[in-house]
Write a structure and sequence with these properties.
By secondary structure, this protein is mainly alpha-helical. The protein has 8 helices and 2 strands; from the N terminus they run αββααααααα.
């Protein structure tokens, strides 16, 4: 195991073995610690089939393996924090988006809701098997894809119909607050340094949110300068394209 790409290959290879609970990679020392409840020979054969010149260094029974991987309580606490932030901003952005007639804010609020649900799903994965975490990442991706399709349909409807110019001041202020909130969430997630599938999925969602927040801010400025609804609708379209790309990344990660 010489590089992160080999780590990814190993993770994908072992992802189907439900008895595996944790994988801890030490790339500099070319070591892998596997915490599992199943047959060791099955795991070893899967790794050997990759032809990475692997060998078993040691095997032992342990009762307390929290030091070998992300502590469950710490990971759950982190997910509850980012879930609360995202759900709170879903309510704030949906409310202000409807009041200000901003499709950009409504779209971002739906994305925040998707994130909150993803973090909720991830909470069920904490301490679960690798295969269960992969499945949860997949559910997250399909959910985000569904929201993207619904959002694009609404954007098209607004393009074709009559819509008043949204309130640019609300767009900018709320988006700046959402940007700060998402930056905090991303910092907390990256600080955990977790490489598990469901946590990586959460990081992808949050990275997308930061880009979206910046886009809504720019759209708000353009709405003010041009006195037009179209910058808001255009950023709404872009938001859902980004959501679609994020969903595809999540689905790829879950394979």
């Amino acid at each position: 195991m010489d590089c992160p790409s080999e780590e990814s290959i190993i993770r994908m290879k072992l992802g189907s073995i439900s008895e595996i609970t944790f994988l801890v990679f030490d790339i500099p020392n070319r070591k892998l610690i596997v915490t599992h409840s199943g047959n060791l020979s099955t795991i070893q054969q899967s790794i050997d089939s990759l032809n990475f010149d692997s060998s078993l260094l040691a095997s032992e029974e342990v009762e307390d393996f929290t030091s070998l991987a992300d502590p469950k309580d710490e990971q759950a606490s982190l997910l509850w924090k980012v879930l609360s932030i995202n759900f709170g901003f879903f309510i704030l952005e949906m409310t202000t988006g409807l009041i200000s007639r901003s499709m950009g804010l409504v779209a971002d609020s739906l994305d925040m809701l998707a994130d909150a649900l993803v973090y909720g799903l991830s909470l069920f994965a904490v301490g679960g098997s690798m295969s269960r975490k992969m499945r949860i990442a997949g559910v997250s991706g399909y959910f985000q894809m569904t929201l993207a399709i619904v959002g694009l349909v609404e954007v098209i409807r607004r393009f074709l119909g009559y819509e008043e110019v949204p309130d640019f001041r609300v767009m900018i202020v709320i988006s700046v607050l959402a940007l700060i909130a998402n930056a905090l969430c991303l910092y907390l997630l990256q600080k955990s340094k977790s490489q598990e599938a469901h946590m990586k999925a959460s990081m992808i969602f949050t990275s997308n949110d930061i880009v979206i927040n910046l886009g809504v801010i720019i759209a708000g400025v353009l709405v003010f300068v041009l006195n037009s609804k179209y910058p808001d609708l255009i950023i709404g379209s872009i938001v859902f394209i980004i959501v679609t790309r994020g969903a595809l990344s999540i689905l790829k990660l879950s394979k």
